[in-house]
């Protein structure tokens, strides 16, 4: 895995993790009973994005390290993912 592939893999894992972390402990205007006229009741009042971004960064780093270790260790190879035997038999 090259440096570009590693960065792209980290960014993909980061965004997937961010979308999972984003709705956790969100307080909406409807929950607090303070709905601003012209907005939806489900609009966030306190979203804590900076804290969630830092949490996401830590979780994504751990997940990226696990995925990179699995890739480099050879536990899973591209032939393991070839369900339809399109690569043919292994040479060796």
State the domain count: 1
Proportion of helical residues:
40-55%
Radius of gyration: 21 Å
Structural shape: elongated
Per DSSP E runs of 2 or more residues, the count of β-strands stands at 2
Give, in spatial order, the strands making up the sheet with the most strands.
Answer: 1-2
Strand content: 5-15%
Low-pLDDT residue intervals, each spanning 5 or more residues? none
Alpha-carbon distance between the two ends: 23 Å
Structural class label? mainly alpha
Question: Can you give me a brief rundown of this structure?
Answer:
The chain has 92 residues and is mostly helical.
Report on this model:
The two termini are 23 Å apart. The chain has 92 residues and is mostly helical. It has helices spanning 3-21, 29-32, 49-73; strands spanning 27-28, 44-46. The longest helix is centred in the middle third of the chain and has 25 residues, at 49-73. The protein is elongated and about 70 Å long. The mean pLDDT is 88. The chain has one domain (3-73). It contains three helices and two strands. Strands 1-2 form a two-stranded antiparallel ribbon.
């Amino acid at each position: 895995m090259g440096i570009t592939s590693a960065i792209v893999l980290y960014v993909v894992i980061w965004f997937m993790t961010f979308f999972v972390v984003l709705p956790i402990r969100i307080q909406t205007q409807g929950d607090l009973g303070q709905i601003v006229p012209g907005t939806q009741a489900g609009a966030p009042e306190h979203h804590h994005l900076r804290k969630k971004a830092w949490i996401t960064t830590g979780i994504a780093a751990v997940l990226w390290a696990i995925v990179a270790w699995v890739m480099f260790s050879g536990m899973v190879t591209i032939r393991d993912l070839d369900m339809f035997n399109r690569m043919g038999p292994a040479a060796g």
